[in-house]
Amino acid sequence: MSILLAASFRVHRSGSRSELLVLIEPDGTGVFREIIGRFNNAHPQTPVRLVEGPPSTDAREDMYSTAFLAGSSAYDVVYCDVIWIPKFAAAGWLLDLTGRLSGADANDFLPADLEAGSYKGRLYRIPAFTDAGLLYYRTDLVQRPPETYQDLVAAASRFQSADRVGYVWQGKQYEGLVTNYLEVLWGHGGDWISPDRRVLLDSPEALEALRFMKSSIDTISPRGVSTYTEEETRNLFQNGRSVFMRNWLYAWPLLNSSDSDVKGRVAFIPMPHVSGGMRAATLGGWGFAISRLSPHADAAWEFIQFATGPEQLQELYSKAGRIPARKSLVPDYFQQIVKNARARPRIPEYAQASDILQRWLSAALADIVTPEDALRNAVRETRAVLGE
After folding, report:
1. What predicted TM-score, i.e. pTM, was given to this entire model?
2. What is the band of 12 on the pLDDT scale with cuts at 50, 70, 90?
3. pLDDT at 69
4. Which domain holds residue 107?
5. What CATH number has the domain bearing residue 311?
6. Are 159 and 230 part of one and the same domain?
7. In DSSP terms, which residues pair with 345 in a beta bridge?
């Protein structure tokens, strides 16, 4: 299915051999087109052509992977999610950018985002936007924001009503479920895969984290939460139909837009933790890399420098709500959140490991298996993939 989807979006270069192609998500605000238009006006010999792919991150990853596996130089500039770099770099698909970044830029980009663009000590991706998971809440209802998961359950139970649920999060079987689970897992003091590739889900902390997520369904969270992605949760919360919401930074300007039912009545905090644990946010974000097969690597680098420059990133924040991955541009109220964001396991087999965890978490949430069996199976299958 993914190969057919990739083929359906196949693009061909125009007669200009120096044209650069970049694949991104649908450009709903048009801001990417504006930025690329300015670059093209200044670089008519090496214009960039924007290819708008499907909204699904997984589908666009498949499109890039299919092109690379075919030995195609279809996409010169690779617009990368943070979790793609180990896989793409280990496969030899990306150009090593180590040494190209100026000292000033290296000092300005967020360290975690630069690290997320690196593999085995070499830099392959220049960060553009950062992201992190956090907990939004209604300030007109909740006077004291929760610190622990016990506090969250108590407040969500107290303020939910016939037309307002307590807590919404992303429970559909996709990458978002993994990020939600990781934040609960880290908040319980556990971890998924260690830097030395050990699978750590056979722990009391991992089990308690999954039990918490499962116990929230039909109590403080609606049954349908196991089918929700970011936008379903945002729409419910933004329409005043939830007390708490786990989501990403992008939701903040939307929740305070003129058409939001909760405008001026929302705040956010880092995700809760158990007593004695620590708050944690999953690191997200996007950046730009260069295909090793591109015949125009230097021109692609010029575009990346332009696109990740302060002026362009500030424009993307003001028009599309994307949080710049530069320390100097991160709004003050997000500084602490992004500072404490944690990366997902930086392994070439990440896609397989994530797919395994998604499947078994989803099975547990749907009562197909017990939480104990779900984690036991996830551990066994992940260890087989990693060769542990």
Report:
1. 0.91
2. low
3. 95
4. 2-130+284-342
5. 3.40.190.10
6. yes
7. none
